[in-house]
Write a structure and sequence with these properties.
Keywords: Membrane, Transmembrane, Transmembrane helix. By secondary structure, this protein is mainly α. The protein has one domain. Helix content is 81%, strand content 0%. Helix 1 runs antiparallel to helix 2. The longest helix has 36 residues. The mean pLDDT is 81.
C-alpha cells in the first residue's frame, strides 16, 4: 500500500474516531441529549481536524522524503 493511501486511511480513521467519541460517546457519558446540532458540530470539527492532520502528516512525509533524497540513505535530522 502506498504512503498516500495509508495517509488517507489514517485520516479517515482519525475523523471517524473523533466523530464517534466527541459526538456520540462523550454526550452519552455526560447524560446530555444527542441531537442533530451536536452531531453536525462534531462532524464539522472532526472533518476540520482530520484535514489539518492529513496536511501536517503529508508535509512531514514530503520533508522526510526530500531529506532522504538529499542525504542518500540516512535520514536528515533537524
Amino acid at each position: 500500500m502506498s504512503k498516500r493511501k495509508r495517509l488517507i486511511l489514517s485520516g479517515l480513521f482519525y475523523i471517524t474516531f473523533m466523530f464517534v467519541t466527541m459526538g456520540l460517546l462523550w454526550p452519552w457519558l455526560n447524560n446530555e441529549p444527542i441531537n442533530t446540532r451536536t452531531i453536525l458540530a462534531s462532524l464539522v470539527s472532526g472533518l476540520g481536524g482530520g484535514f489539518v492532520f492529513i496536511c501536517v502528516v503529508y508535509y512531514q512525509l514530503r520533508k522526510n522524503e526530500a531529506g532522504l533524497k538529499a542525504d542518500g540513505d540516512k535520514l536528515s535530522t533537524p
